[in-house]
Amino acid sequence: MASPLSFKQLLAQILDAVDASGWQALILDSSKPFRLRLFRSNEKGFDVCIYIWNCTHGGSAARAKNEYRIQLTGVVPSAGLGETTLLLGWHSGYEVFVGFDIQKHDEQSSQSPSIQVKEETLQDAHSRAFSIHHRQNGEIAVAFRSEFLVEYALNAASLHLTGKAAINDMSLLNNLDMLTETQITKVKNQERQIILSQIARKYRTADFRKRVLGAYEHRCAACGIQLKLIDAAHIIPVAAATSTDETQNGIALCKLHHTAFDRNLLSFDEKYKIEISNAEVSRLAAENLVGGLKKFKQHLRTAIILPNDRRDYPLPQYIAEARKVRHWIQD
Length: 331
Ligand SMILES: [Zn+2]
Prior knowledge:
2 domains, binds zinc ion, single chain
């Protein structure tokens, strides 16, 4: 059984989730509640205030077996003004967050210091990424996997909306793996349509990333390093009509080799041999930009590291197609 996290571990868990969401965080306040600024590369980002507790069963015999809860100890949640405030539970066993509507628990008194959630909600989020649950008090609880933390923070107000239409629309998130473009375009409310489409896209990206990084054991196929510096790259780029999210169209590459691959400095042939583009090197030489080339070459494997499972190997016809659409020129 996974044990509840300490206060410090909860913050670390949030930071991990931000990273898994593809964002970065500045810690503005590491006491309760946590205050973070979430941002991406050169963007300013947004501030978020996070109240978080472990989500546990608590063990009392009088309590229903499938009833979990967070206990609002130590600090009283306050919705605040003009900033995004989240009221979260974290369940270590299912490795999911559950978000409650902060407006419904604003200044919740110490006489009723807990909020319940059904185990099924946590289970569904664990296996399907997202789970929207209508609680008995009319509130919407939203459970989700780590990599959706930022999407949740950006859209918390809409996700917790009650009312039949809103609940119907957002419940589409309960089956993300089956959610189609057609279903999304049928959603009449435009804001909710945009949120659904963002989260569906995020789901596909996260799913591809998980499969590819898993297949390559989080190791760069070109140089072998891990260090959590690894991207899941598409062999045929997403922008091409022929691209797919199959693992066989993916390869794990470190940031350096991912960029080199996308810029056509580096490629690999249908027998997986790694190649450097002499044409690109000449172009760089003409601009006096070949510093470090020798070291760069030394760190490369002769052939890409292949996944353990043969079914995950890059498909030769995808490699050929990628070279065509990327206009790879070796000499
Ligand atoms: Zn590398």
